[in-house]
Specification:
Elements lengths: L4 E5 L4 E7 L5 E8 H9 L5 E5 L4 H10 L3 E5 L1 H4 L9 H11 L13 H32 L9 H12 L9 H34 L1 H6 L7 H10 L9 H7 L4 E3 L8 E4 L5 H20 L6 H9 L2 H22 L8 H4 L2
Parallel strand pairs: 1-4, 4-5
Antiparallel strand pairs: 1-2, 2-3, 6-7
Helix pairs in contact: 5-7, 5-9, 6-7, 7-9, 9-11, 10-13, 11-13
Length: 345
């Protein structure tokens, strides 16, 4: 009657536990406070623990692994079909306990503290980029009401902001509007300085990380994309192929096939939105370079642009880049432009 499998529903202060034996009989179903969780698992013999993947689940997974348990994280979307009826903690944790035993279930690799630390830089950077964009748009809108237009581009807006803060130009605005524009300009410049600091930290991280250094050799992937991929993909061997890795990122066509008829639509956009965004941005840079300097661009990309619209070609290149990323991470190699089989994934 020993517990063999436990479903754990994590939260901030209240944790739900559902444990069964090898025969499937329920042996424990209880609620634990935060301070009770680790002492409870410390008293148990090593068993399989299922947890829904979330922001805090990696921390608890590391703690439980340290106590000798085998922890498996699962995407919440894959656990939901096992919820029989209603929505409460007891029903959720029972579904988790059942889902973790399924042989076809897909699991999320547990991230290390270093990986989560690196991803915190990316999350902070993404937040600051959005705030800088909001501030610049607010400055543009405010000045536009008084007939003043700032040229397109972030650098042009930052340059205007520096001139306003340093009082190098007089826009002839009313006192209140001048105060608002100066305040927004100062905030924009401060945010930009913080972004530069994060970019420097990511560049240093890329130089010290072997995986990130190798991924940076891929055209279209820089320090930001390389460090994000290195920190997000804990175990590339969990994917059987480069196509499966690209599908995990949502870069493969959405299928609506039935009756032997294949119907492929747009990309699924499943998985990590941030990683997919970075790959698409990198592919966009490659497409722009190919259009401006076709004599030195990849012939395969030029042939693709001749057949498909630019945005379709961009997503196709992002898919190919994802396959190359998987190949380099699994084989421990660096990118070789002349290696055709690596490009074909």
């Amino acid at each position: 009657m020993e517990i063999s499998t436990i479903g754990l529903d994590v939260a901030k202060n209240v944790f739900q536990v559902h444990g069964i034996n090898a025969a499937g009989d329920v042996l424990v179903r209880k609620t634990l406070r935060r301070a009770q969780l680790l002492p409870f698992f410390a008293k148990l013999s090593p068993c399989l623990v299922g947890v829904e993947a979330c922001g805090t689940s990696h921390h608890w997974a590391r703690e439980l692994v340290g106590l000798g348990h085998k922890v498996r994280l699962m995407p919440p979307a894959y656990v939901k079909p096992y919820v029989k009826r209603g929505k409460n903690d007891a029903a959720d944790v029972e579904a988790i306990c059942e889902a973790v035993t399924r042989p076809t279930m897909r699991f999320v690799a547990v991230k290390s503290r270093e990986q989560q630390s690196a991803l915190s830089l990316h999350r902070a950077r993404s937040l600051l980029v959005g705030q800088r964009t909001q501030l610049v748009n607010m400055i543009r809108a405010t000045l536009a009401e008084f007939g003043i237009a700032i040229p397109a581009g972030v650098e042009k807006a930052l340059s205007m902001g520096r001139q306003i803060v340093d009082r190098e130009i007089d826009l002839g605005l009313p006192t209140e509007a001048t105060m608002v524009v100066a305040m927004l300009s100062q905030q924009t410049l401060d945010t930009h300085v913080r972004l530069r600091e994060i970019d420097k930290a990511l560049t240093a991280l890329q130089r010290s990380d072997d995986v990130a250094r190798r991924l940076s050799t891929i055209p279209g992937i820089g320090p930001i994309g390389a460090t994000a991929l290195s920190a997000s993909v804990t175990d590339p061997h969990q994917f059987k192929s480069g196509r499966q890795f690209a599908a995990w990122l949502g870069l493969t066509p959405l299928q609506n096939s039935t009756g032997g008829k294949e119907r492929l639509g747009r990309i699924t956009k499943m998985g990590d939105k941030y990683l997919r965004q970075l790959l698409v941005i990198g592919a966009t840079a490659l497409v722009r370079y190919a259009k401006s300097k076709p004599q030195t661009a990849d012939p395969r990309l030029l042939a693709l642009l001749a057949r498909k619209p630019a945005r379709v070609a961009t997503v196709a290149m992002a898919n190919k880049m994802a396959r190359i990323v998987w190949a380099l991470m699994t084989r421990g190699q660096t990118y070789q432009a002349h290696h055709a089989s690596a490009l074909e994934g």
